Amino acid sequence: MVNGLATYNAVQEQSAEVLVAEHASLVKRIAYHLVNRLPPNVQADDLIQAGMIGLLEASRNYDPSQGASFETYAGIRIRGSMLDEIRRSDWTPRSVHRKARMVAEAMRDIENEEGRDARDVEVADVLGMSLRDYHKILQDASGCRIFSLEELQSVGELPQERKDGAISGPFEGMQRDMFKSELSEAIAGLPERERLVIALYYDKELNLREIGHVLGVSESRVCQIHSQATLRLRSRLSEWLSEGPE
Description:
By secondary structure, the protein is mostly helical. It folds into two domains: about 90 residues, Rna Polymerase Sigma Factor, Chain: A; about 150 residues, Up-down Bundle (Butyryl-CoA Dehydrogenase, subunit A, domain 3). It has eleven helices and no strands. The longest helix has 21 residues. The chain is globular, with a radius of gyration of 20 Å. The termini are far apart.
């Protein structure tokens, strides 16, 4: 009996090692995709190290009977480990969080009043600043961890999967489905260019420079559009989100 258990454990460990070896490149791909829009002091190597831990955990906990492919399951765990690492070392000054919240609130007020998308110049006017200063806030907020689309379901404010990938209960599962539906609706309602940037970045996994080539604009302008899109989403999903740092 003991020998049989030892053999089983050895086989399981060997299978995990094979999965890790075969999917190590997935960790690098996700890390470089994330690091492209993060500040220079965030190193890809740190994300890769965190991602490898996530991959190892995925290889040990993966259950093929659940229906998802290992790559899909591992991708979630890898990204989650990287986001955990990012959250542990939040480099963003509190002033950036505060100004970004101001932008989201101004967008929400304008859109509630006008019944349409808030324009750059309108948001800047409400905030009493120049368009140039407004764009500077967008640029600064682009690296702010609480405004990335991935983080909307990862900051602990939303219904979330447990580490083993299961939903903690029927009510939490229902909340998660409701949030996903509202998030999809909010993305579909973005202005065309913002919606395109979100699709190219998250669905097609292009980096900001590549998106700039597609749109015929600079990388910094894509960064601003991406930031404005995520802030607009945050304003429209405000009921699901708690406040960040003051």
